[in-house]
């Protein structure tokens, strides 16, 4: 999806040092679904860790891109909302939401029972599982093969719990996908578990003969992805769900998934 020039002007990227305007936006979307002229100036601030291919700002155009990024832009366009972007580490997304630095988390966040105790989730945006990344030439072909090896995952993700069950000799955690992938490349860890879409997209964008994605691979976490809002923001939740339902009725929904390496297997009702 390409944003129109009109819409592109309404996208603003915030960083942790520029929060003054974002702190006052917690209830901004209560009337966003009506489509009136007044609603055209409504603004929602999304929180993301800026990791491709989920929700990230394009280095060349400054536009919000990615699977989740393009979906929220499609919903916002239909609702007549402005979108601002607050960037933070993945493990601080929920704290940032609770501190009202953003209105909604849009970052391929798995819907889990533990997280539902803290925030509300929208209906499922799409489904995906984890991928297993290893050095090129590795004999690792599945989860059973990683026993006794040094394992890695990104801090704050469900994969930190997964690697704790696999009887590795050591577990290491990293603050970003890039750092995790680099650790496999330089031999710091023997195997990494992270979002399969991230791995596939990274290797398409930047082929690396030193690492490889194990395939075929049956994921342990064929998880549902959703956007997160504060418990009290029920009107925003309803608006997001209605916008998502409308998006799923259009060809654009599957087109966004396919653009970033996913497909019909990742579609949810």
UniProtKB/TrEMBL annotation:
Pfam families: SBP_bac_3. Residues 43-264 form the Solute-binding protein family 3/N-terminal domain. Keywords: Signal. The keyword Repeat does not apply. Residues 1-32 form the signal peptide. The keyword Magnesium does not apply. Gene3D superfamilies: Periplasmic binding protein-like II. PANTHER family: ARGININE-BINDING EXTRACELLULAR PROTEIN ARTP, MEMBRANE-BOUND LYTIC MUREIN TRANSGLYCOSYLASE F. This is Amino acid ABC transporter substrate-binding protein. It comes from Cryobacterium glaciale.
């Amino acid at each position: 999806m390409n944003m129109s020039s009109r819409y592109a002007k309404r996208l603003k990227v915030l960083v942790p040092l520029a929060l003054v305007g974002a702190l006052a936006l917690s209830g901004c979307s209560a009337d966003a679904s009506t489509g009136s002229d007044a609603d055209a100036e409504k603004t929602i601030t999304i929180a993301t860790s800026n990791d491709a291919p989920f929700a990230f700002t394009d280095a060349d155009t400054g536009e919000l891109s990615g699977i989740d990024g393009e979906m929220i832009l499609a919903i916002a366009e239909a609702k007549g909302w402005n979108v601002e972007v607050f960037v933070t580490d993945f493990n601080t997304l929920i704290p940032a939401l609770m501190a009202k630095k953003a209105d909604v988390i849009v970052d391929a966040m798995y819907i889990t029972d533990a997280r539902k105790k803290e925030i509300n989730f929208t209906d499922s945006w799409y489904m995906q599982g984890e991928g297993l990344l290893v050095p090129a030439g590795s004999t690792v072909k599945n989860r059973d093969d990683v026993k006794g090896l040094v394992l890695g995952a990104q801090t704050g993700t469900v994969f930190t719990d997964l690697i704790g069950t696999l009887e590795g000799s050591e577990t290491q955690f990293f603050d970003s996908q890039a750092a995790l992938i680099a650790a496999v490349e330089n031999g710091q860890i023997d195997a990494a578990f992270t979002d399969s879409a991230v791995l596939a997209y990274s290797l398409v964008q930047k082929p690396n003969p030193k690492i490889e994605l194990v395939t075929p691979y049956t994921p342990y976490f064929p998880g549902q992805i959703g956007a997160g809002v504060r418990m009290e923001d029920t009107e925003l939740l309803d608006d997001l769900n209605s916008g998502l339902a409308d998006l799923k009725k259009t060809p654009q929904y599957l087109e966004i998934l396919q653009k970033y390496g996913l497909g019909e297997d990742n579609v949810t009702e």
